[in-house]
Amino acid sequence: MGFEIVLGVIGGIAALVIVLVLAVSYICFRLAFYSDRKKQEKHELGDVILPDGEIYEEYREDISRWCRMLCELPCRDVEITSFDGLKLRGRYFEQKKGAPIELLMHGYRGESLRDLSGGVFRCFALGRNALLVDHRGSGRSEGNVITFGINESRDCVDWVNFIVENIDPDADIFIGGVSMGASTVLLATARGLHEHVVGILADCGYSSAKKIIKKVIKEMKLPADICYPFVKFGARIYGRFDLEELSPEEAMKKCSLPVIFLHGDGDDFVPFEMSVESYEACASKHKKLVNIEGAGHGLAFPAAQERYIKEVGDFFDEALGNKQ
Which of 28, 22, 21, 24 is nearest to 216 (CA)? Predict the structure, then answer.
């Protein structure tokens, strides 16, 4: 009888541990990866909702102006179905038929119109058309799980194929992104991109989802080495994806496409050193790392618009032999 009691106690403790692990992992999943569509703020294109932080206030006028200008531009609403059945939506802005097309990917918990409004006019300045897309779980696209670029990079490949099949079968294609969008396009280079993709632009992307998540955990005054496994387990169990399936830094080791990395050394969210890591790992013969001095997270273009455009234009002119 005593032995049975001991077994019962051990079984009870084991069950409690399992419940606690599942509960903590679920909380981590909700905090890091879940996108509650009902709570997403709805707003008109010109009504910009900036992220929290004083660093964004200086650029509110520019970003608002870009959004208002986009409101006045004709665009084509486009849609694809993801590999797992989600309706993903975007807007295609065409400046000139037959021009190169840039596919633009936004940041974590962002949406395309806010994060990439300036990107459209940067594309126009470089003679490109622009396709802005909302990630799964963001903007007008379906879904409730943000995967830090893992599944978003698969969606990126599908968007590229959509361009070839439905917009311009002969166009040269660039893929660019900011923050998580930058990491997404770097990951996409390892997913089998169409041969029409000729260049990559990565603005303030993280080199590893694990590294950036552990950084955030530490900033919350929590033990990263203890908490991170719960985050990873929550992604696997509740989000159904492997957070460490592939990192941007790893993807760059086999990249042969021209890549320009842009990052502000005033970025206190995704450290500039993460772009250094991806740049150093990049196997491409044509690569460049541009430091926009003092720029905060996602603000490299607003902070130095003329230089940004020149750096990107000059890099791809040289890498592609003025093909663009």
Answer: 28
Q: Cα–Cα distances in Å, from 316 out to 120, 162, 199, 279?
A: 17, 23, 8, 16
Q: Confirm if 253 and 302 have CB atoms less than 8 A apart.
A: no
Q: How far are the Cα atoms of 80, 81, 286 from residue 37, in angstroms, in the given order?
A: 19, 18, 40
Give the model's pLDDT for residue 19. Answer: 80
- Are the C-beta atoms of residues 124 and 94 closer than 8 Å to each other? no
Angstrom distance (rounded) from CA 244 to CA 273: 20
Least confident of 46-50, 62-66, 85-89, 224-228: 46-50
Assign 290 to helix, strand or coil. Answer: strand
Torsion of CA 50, 51, 57, 62, to 10 degrees: -40
> Which of 86, 83, 93, 105 has the alpha carbon at shortest distance from 167?
93
Q: Is the whole model's pTM more than 0.90, yes or no? A: yes
Contacts of 3 (CB under 8 A, 6+ apart): none
Helix 305-320 and helix 112-125, axial crossing angle in degrees, nearest 10: 60
